[in-house]
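F.,

This is the one I mentioned.
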């Protein structure tokens, strides 16, 4: 997470551990430089300039390259101090170090960086937890004497016995008075060797520290002597947790991360020191009151996420990776903007660019609209197959609880009441509170399955919400139906499974129930095409179309162009099952607002000309007609009973089927048929989708109709259809008369 757009990205786990008081800062010279303290090079120069060795001495031969090119492969400065100790004496050299560090700082603002680190590192008791290799006393500045605990070698806190690390621990020694007889600092290679290798007291202390805390290095470069010796000592036996050691360093992320990774440290790169300390300032504000900081971030969540910067979206995402954050988010009033669901879902914010249709069509890039500052860019299909993806906040993550109820073979909880990680439950609650937004419906349609707990929460909200828009209630009901049918999440081999059972068991009651299940139509909803494939809808429930949300389709039993042999003894039951499914399908087609739906003709061998365009329900409809023909031949009374119940108002199936049934003289009396047809409303009478069945019925039964019925039918035909909404007043008379003439001419030619 970044506090500023140009600042370093701090790992979530580091921020969370700092909130819990489990982070210790290990600080180097870079922390004191802004306050006017010298660098290690500057300190070495100060000592050398005092002693002024001849240029041909070993000391100057080793140090001159540092003056010429500090970035070169030079003799380490700790070794130069070792030469100084050997030449001039340890106490004399260290006394000069004390003199230089005791000089009054010359910076405009002294100790700012130290105060920030003290705030960030504070534990639950508000005591700082700092280890430093600096000798200066800037961490103690501004604190009354006696209020701040400090430790000097060898009297370090004994962490192995539960002692806390609070206060300032001077790992390499604390600045002593100028007039002191001794100045015990770790400066030379010999000092470092004893502290980290031969005696190892500094290494042991840091190792114990890492077993209990996360340690953050700040103010160092990877090549600095303290780091070189520390990591050499730690890596001697490898008995430390590398995931607990972080380092801030300036440079490009790729090079910095690679450099520190080789040393077993997680690097946090930053571009310049100003950006680092601006981030530290923001982090300190957060550390003062993490809950208040989270609340301020969530307050920004009321905005449309498209209108804020990626790093600000990243801050909200960071908050949502914790239980505390998701609880605040779900309880926020007013509720956060619904399009945050697009930020939380990595599959949405990482989706491909989409566009509408036409020359000047709008384009939409979800990565620009919803992306986070640390998202991966341009994830290839091969990467996706390898499991590479951006962080998805709707997925279990390390740190979430893992309820044991999920891992059992028996005694499972009821669907919709399963145990779930608390963080995810808070997100479920927020989604439930936000279902009055079409954006959430659009998101739910994109999912290949929703958790039963989320489905139950949505249903619960629908049942109890009196303010939910009527169209929202209708759409969500379809979405719930789609997600609760497992056939929508896997390849549907019901037909082949059914065939196997019939072959093995015959037509048992269980097999018939299986047929009922397999043949039940289902709602299938896929993401929308075009612009809506990655851009959520902006319309309200009053204006939104189903196609803005997704592609709604009704799926029927797929016979895979095979034939179902139905014995006579189970024919009525099988026919009844298929009839029930057509009733269900008709209702579903109406629910998804199907306008164009063509079913196969009931007369596939009669007056066929051209190609028939039918929906995917053709197999089910054809099978149903075949079974009806068999029932009509064997049990005309049963066929009559079934067909009588078919509503001619159903334009999808039963209007056509009823006309087909009326054409069977041994099933329906001619007078009954004539009266029924004359009772049709204008929409049914002139439905062009059933014109074949209608005209074949009239032609086949015409001789059986009484003259009175024939006259009334002719009169009804000559009146013609009512004006349809898409017919203009000017064209209506010609269209009406043309249809009437076509119907009449067909009957005349029979």
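My design for it:
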């Amino acid at each position: 997470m970044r506090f500023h757009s140009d600042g370093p990205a701090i790992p979530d786990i580091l921020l969370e551990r700092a909130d819990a008081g489990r982070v210790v800062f290990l600080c180097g010279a870079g922390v004191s430089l802004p306050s006017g303290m010298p660098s290690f090079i500057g300190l070495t120069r100060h000592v050398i300039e005092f002693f002024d060795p001849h240029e041909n001495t070993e000391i100057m031969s080793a140090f001159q390259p540092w003056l010429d090119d500090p970035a070169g492969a030079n003799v380490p400065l700790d070794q130069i101090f070792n030469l100084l100790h050997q030449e001039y004496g340890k106490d004399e050299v260290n006394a000069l170090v004390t003199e230089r560090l005791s000089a009054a700082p010359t910076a405009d603002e002294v100790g700012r960086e130290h105060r920030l680190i003290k705030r960030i590192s504070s534990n639950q008791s508000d005591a700082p937890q700092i280890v430093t290799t600096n000798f200066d006393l800037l961490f103690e500045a501004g604190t009354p004497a006696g209020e701040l605990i400090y430790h000097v070698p060898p009297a370090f806190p004994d962490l192995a016995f539960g002692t806390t690390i609070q206060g300032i621990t001077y790992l390499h020694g604390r600045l002593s008075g100028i007039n002191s007889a001794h100045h015990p600092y770790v400066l030379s290679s010999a000092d470092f060797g004893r502290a980290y290798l031969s005696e190892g007291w500094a290494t042991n202390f840091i190792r114990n520290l890492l077993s209990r805390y996360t340690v953050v290095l700040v103010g160092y470069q990877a090549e600095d002597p303290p780091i070189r010796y520390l990591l050499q000592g730690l890596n001697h036996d490898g008995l430390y947790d590398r995931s607990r050691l972080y380092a801030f360093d300036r440079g490009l992320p790729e090079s910095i991360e690679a450099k520190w990774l080789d040393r077993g440290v997680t690097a946090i790169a930053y571009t310049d020191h100003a950006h680092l300390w601006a981030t530290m300032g923001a982090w300190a504000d957060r550390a003062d009151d993490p809950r208040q900081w989270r609340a301020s971030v969530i307050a920004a969540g009321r905005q449309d996420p498209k209108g804020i910067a990626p790093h600000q979206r990243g801050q909200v995402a960071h908050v949502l990776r914790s239980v505390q954050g998701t609880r605040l988010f779900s309880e926020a009033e007013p509720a956060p903007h619904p399009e945050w669901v697009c930020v939380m879902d990595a599959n949405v914010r990482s989706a491909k660019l989409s566009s509408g249709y036409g020359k000047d069509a709008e384009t939409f890039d979800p990565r620009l609209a919803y992306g986070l500052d640390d998202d991966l860019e341009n994830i290839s299909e091969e990467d996706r197959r390898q499991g590479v993806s951006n962080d998805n906040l709707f997925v279990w993550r390390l740190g979430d609880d893992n309820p044991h109820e999920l891992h059992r073979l028996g005694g499972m909880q009821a669907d919709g009441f399963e145990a779930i990680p608390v963080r995810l439950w808070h997100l479920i609650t927020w989604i439930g509170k936000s279902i009055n937004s079409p954006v959430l419906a659009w998101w739910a349609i994109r999912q290949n399955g929703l958790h039963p707990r989320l489905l139950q929460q949505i249903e619960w909200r629908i049942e109890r919400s009196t303010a939910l828009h009527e169209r929202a209630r209708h759409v969500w009901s379809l979405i719930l139906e789609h997600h609760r049918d497992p056939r929508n999440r896997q390849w549907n081999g019901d037909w082949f499974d059914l065939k196997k059972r019939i072959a093995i068991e015959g037509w048992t009651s269980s097999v018939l129930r299986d047929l009922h299940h397999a043949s039940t139509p289902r709602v299938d909803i896929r993401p929308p095409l075009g612009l809506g494939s990655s851009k959520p809808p902006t319309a309200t429930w009053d204006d939104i179309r189903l196609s803005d949300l997704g592609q709604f389709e009704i799926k029927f039993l797929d016979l895979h162009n095979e034939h179902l042999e139905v014995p006579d003894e189970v024919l009525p039951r099988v026919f009844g099952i298929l009839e029930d499914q057509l009733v269900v399908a008709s209702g579903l087609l109406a629910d998804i607002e199907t306008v164009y739906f063509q079913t196969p003709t009931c007369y596939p061998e009669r007056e066929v000309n051209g190609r028939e365009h039918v929906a995917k329900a053709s197999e089910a409809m054809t099978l149903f007609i075949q079974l009806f023909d068999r029932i009509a031949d064997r049990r005309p009374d049963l066929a009559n009973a079934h067909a009588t119940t078919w509503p001619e108002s159903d334009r999808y199936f039963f209007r056509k089927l009823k006309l087909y049934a009326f054409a069977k003289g041994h099933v329906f009396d001619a007078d009954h048929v004539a009266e029924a047809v004359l009772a049709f409303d204008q929409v049914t009478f002139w439905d062009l989708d059933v014109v074949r069945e209608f005209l074949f019925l009239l032609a086949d039964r015409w001789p059986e109709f009484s003259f009175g019925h024939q006259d009334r039918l002719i009169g009804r035909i000559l009146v013609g259809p009512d004006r349809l909404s898409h017919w203009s007043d000017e064209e209506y008379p010609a269209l009406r008369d043309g249809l009437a003439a076509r119907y009449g001419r067909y009957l005349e030619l029979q």
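The CA atoms of residues 679 and 685 lie 9 Å apart.

Talk soon.
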